[in-house]
């Protein structure tokens, strides 16, 4: 039964500048319980809240986006009034340069977020055995552990990616990453390609939004009934005004990952639904990306973070798995992927994988595919192709 409690006033006060210390501690001390002082209200960052436009509100779409929609035969006024729900395959924007994601303020309300379904890529037994002779033995399952709350203190860069697909609202995970061309003011989010684009059979998803530190205090569904927006989205909603994924994913991605799985990564450039500060300034944390594609021996341990939404999870809480990585390949012709034991399910897709390098956590992969029994996860190695995608995003859109 859902609770009907009245939510507490939003926790506000002094913002803390974080260096993702929780992630470093979790990776470096995974076998050791970490002590920590109790959270106080003064440690809660100021929230950037969003409010729904009222029934008579007029949602404005910038002229350049309206023009881009018009190029594809889509009326901007109809789009904002619900036309985005029309998934006519002849008008499904597919190519890399076709991305359009105008802000529809108030669309992603707490209830709509909770209704979003997991976006997962499950490989079949046949798929999983395709790389025999290339892949290392399947790892033993690692039970996912709940991240400590509040998330803004222990895993500030991690959040949820919401989007609309032909099947309705969907959800993935994502990570705030640094922008090399705009230090300290990044608006970049790393996630999976299949969280922004349907792959070879479709096109770009719509209404893509990032919510860092979603459900900051890990409250239950009952506790979130009538919750204040700051409890759901302590830093507000951040809309993707541009997204980039690999051509390999756009052309070869499929329901089971397909030939695009080894290139299943994406970078979002986001802007706040309300407010003017950058994402990094608002959250107080962002991670470097490691494009060295380290071997298992070099990496030693990797940790995957995300919000699993398929049973036995419900997408409301953040979890993590830490394991020694192995190699996984769907085909000898494709790059080898990283694989770790992990029981996280769909919804964790796109969530960052981290390793400790020179004493700090860096993003080294993202969750892409896993088996039907949810015993392991695999993610792409981030090498030269991924770095080029990232650099182009930083140079071309980072300053917006």
From TrEMBL:
The keyword Transmembrane helix does not apply. Gene3D superfamilies: Trypsin-like serine proteases. It comes from the Bacteria. SUPFAM superfamilies: Trypsin-like serine proteases (SSF50494). Residues 35-59, 113-141 are annotated as: Disordered. This is Secreted protein. Residues 113-124 have a biased composition (Basic and acidic residues). Residues 1-33 form the signal peptide. Keywords: Signal. It comes from Streptomyces violaceus. The keyword Signal applies. PANTHER family: PEPTIDASE S1 DOMAIN-CONTAINING PROTEIN (PTHR15462:SF19), SERINE PROTEASE (PTHR15462).
